[in-house]
Amino acid sequence: MRTQSLRLLAAAMVAVFTFCIAQVAEASDDDEGISDRDGWLHFIDYYVGQDDEIEAIRSRLLAELEEAEDRIDAAIAGLDDEAVEGALVDAANRGVRVRVVADEHLEDSGQFDTLVEHNGIDVAFGDGELAYLPEPHLSPILEYCVDEEDHTNCTRAQSDQQQNTEGIMVRPSDYNVMSHTFFLIDATYVWNITAPLSDEQGTWAAFRAMSEELANSFEREFRQMHGGVFATTLSVYNGPLKSITHQDPLRMTNRGQLRVRFNPQERLVKNVIDEVLRARASVFVMTENLTNEDLINALKYKDENDFEVRVLLGQGQAESLADEVAALNPVEAPEQMGRLPTMVVIDSERDRNGNRQPRLVQILSHELWRAEPFEVLARLPANWVRFYPSDTFADGVMWEIVESGFGSQRNPEADRFIDTWESMWQEASDE
Question: How many domains does the chain have?
Answer without folding.
Answer: 1
